[in-house]
Amino acid sequence: GAGVSQSPSNKVTEKGKDVELRCDPISGHTALYWYRQRLGQGLEFLIYFQGNSAPDKSGLPSDRFSAERTGESVSTLTIQRTQQEDSAVYLCASRAGTGDEKLFFGSGTQLSVL
Amino acid sequence: GIQVEQSPPDLILQEGANSTLRCNFSDSVNNLQWFHQNPWGQLINLFYIPSGTKQNGRLSATTVATERYSLLYISSSQTTDSGVYFCAVGINFGNEKLTFGTGTRLTIIP
């Protein structure tokens, strides 16, 4: 696609429910990142996928968070048993990974946990 | 992990003014990028600049890797330049967990 696409753009859920966020990277991009941004704050790294290598999960805040990526395409970030502190914008980014290191972001998913 | 500090945290300028934003980092890096987050939250990549100087219209950036800092220059500011500017750095080529700074919030007044 022309850019990084994320869905849904907004998600409101009740505490304790599971949510699944989706990211479609730019076609052909081998590297994919998930970041979290709380209101008024900077970006917090969550997880990084590069091709078929094992993902770097070092930023996932707890075992309630997990992410998958199918090959070099779609990625899903799953948050189980959501808590109010999970409320944030979840941003996905991709880059070509072939010497072009520029990172391109989607518009994010605004998650609100009530 | 690597520390990334940006200054100033906030900057308010009149339209037409010039500005310099600074990014300091605590370790050698092989990836440094500048981003603009507009008031609607969209992050736009401005520069990939692990070293040297680049220019794009009214914006330019310089990274002095040996001294561990980067500068973003904005000339003849416009109201559309308002938003938050982030720098992000990476230290492991091929497996880069980019670490973001805390950002500089720029407000341009007409």
Mind explaining what this structure looks like?
The complex is a heterodimer of chains A (114) and B (110). By secondary structure, chain A is mainly β. Chain A has a single domain, classed as Immunoglobulin-like (Sandwich). In chain A, 0% of the residues lie in helices and 46% in strands. Chain A has no helices and 10 strands. In chain A, the strands form 2 sheets. In chain A, strands 2, 4, 5, 8, 9 and 10 form a 6-stranded mixed β-sheet that branches. Chain A is globular. Chain B has one domain: Immunoglobulins (Immunoglobulin-like, Sandwich), CATH 2.60.40. Helix content of chain B is 0%, strand content 56%. By secondary structure, chain B is mainly beta. In chain B, 36% of the residues are buried. Chain B has no helices and 11 strands. Chain B starts with a strand and ends with a strand. Chain B is globular, with a radius of gyration of 13 Å. In chain B, strands 2, 4, 5, 9, 10 and 11 form a 6-stranded mixed β-sheet that branches. Chain B has strands at residues 4-7, 10-14, 19-25, 31-37, 43-48, 52-56, 59-64, 69-74, 83-90, 99-100, 104-109. The chains are: A mainly beta (114), B mainly beta (110). The A-B interface holds A 31, 33, 35, 41-45, 48, 50, 53, 56, 58-59, 89, 91, 93, 100-105, 107-108 and B 31, 33, 35, 41-45, 48, 86, 88, 90, 94-103.
